[in-house]
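Structure in, sequence out. Go:
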């Protein structure tokens, strides 16, 4: 996630619920069963610790973790990106329909710092989310994408969407983007998110007693879901940045010690449940 200035705008979550008319209830999870495998915390944390300094090694490490998580090698591929040394890394979990859910996170980082927060924190979750969803038959094909060259201007995600055919784009029901998790509880960038999709996430968070708040970052930079919104794909963007933690990005402070393990695991738990629910309920 590029960081160009120090302004983060907060938005009231109540406004979202009122706009779409969703009323939250403690029985939401019981009324809407969410089926996925919850991985142990040590697995999630061990994958976070496997960040490499070089972006090429990160790409290779991400593929290795996908395979270790049980990915079928036939569905794991590299997508060469025009005028870039590194490809996008893509794994597709097939579903029973031709509808698609995309979940993405960039694996590249700037030279300064270790890039654990921005954005190995997001990329390292992709294989774990696959592993959590792989235990049940899925209605949608779920496409996990490690984007390259985000820090150079969303190049990997722009290339991915431009390669989609006019028939493929409408099949994407939602694009979930993960960028800079673990600095604190999960945040949603509401101005970069479809409000109905965001409200469903809020309902799941309330039911499972997992924290979720809104922090918009329009004055800070951009992120990979923008490439999809330009093609009219509904998106939801998740992060953990607040004004006090913004200075960690693109600095020497972006290292493993910046991560709050409890918050990072809560983010994994919430996102896995959200993906499972959306797969079951989206038409």
């Amino acid at each position: 996630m590029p960081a160009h200035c120090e302004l983060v705008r907060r938005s009231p979550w109540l406004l979202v619920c009122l706009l779409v008319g969703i009323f939250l209830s403690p029985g939401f999870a019981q009324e809407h069963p969410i089926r996925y495998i919850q991985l142990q915390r040590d697995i999630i944390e061990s994958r976070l610790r496997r960040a490499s300094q070089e972006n090429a090694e990160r790409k290779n490490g991400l593929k290795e973790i996908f395979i270790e998580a049980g990915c079928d090698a036939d569905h794991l591929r590299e997508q060469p990106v025009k005028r870039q040394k590194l490809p996008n890394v893509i794994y597709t979990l097939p579903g029973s329909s031709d509808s698609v859910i995309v979940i993405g996170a960039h694996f590249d980082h700037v030279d300064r710092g270790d890039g654990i927060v921005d954005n190995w924190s997001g990329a390292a979750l992709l294989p774990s989310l696959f592993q959590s969803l792989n235990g049940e038959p899925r209605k949608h094909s779920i496409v996990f994408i490690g984007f390259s060259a985000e820090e150079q201007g969303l190049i990997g995600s722009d290339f991915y969407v431009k390669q989609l055919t006019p028939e493929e784009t409408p099949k994407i029901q939602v694009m979930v983007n993960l960028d800079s998790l673990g600095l604190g509880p999960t945040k949603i960038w509401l101005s970069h998110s479809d409000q109905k999709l965001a409200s469903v996430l809020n309902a799941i968070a309330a039911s499972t007693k997992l924290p979720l708040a809104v922090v918009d970052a329009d004055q800070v930079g951009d992120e990979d879901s923008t490439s999809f919104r330009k093609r009219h794909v509904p998106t939801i963007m998740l992060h953990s940045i607040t004004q006090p933690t913004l200075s960690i990005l693109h600095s020497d402070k972006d290292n493993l010690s910046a991560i709050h393990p409890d918050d990072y695991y809560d983010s994994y738990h919430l996102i896995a449940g959200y993906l499972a629910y959306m797969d079951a309920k989206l038409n």
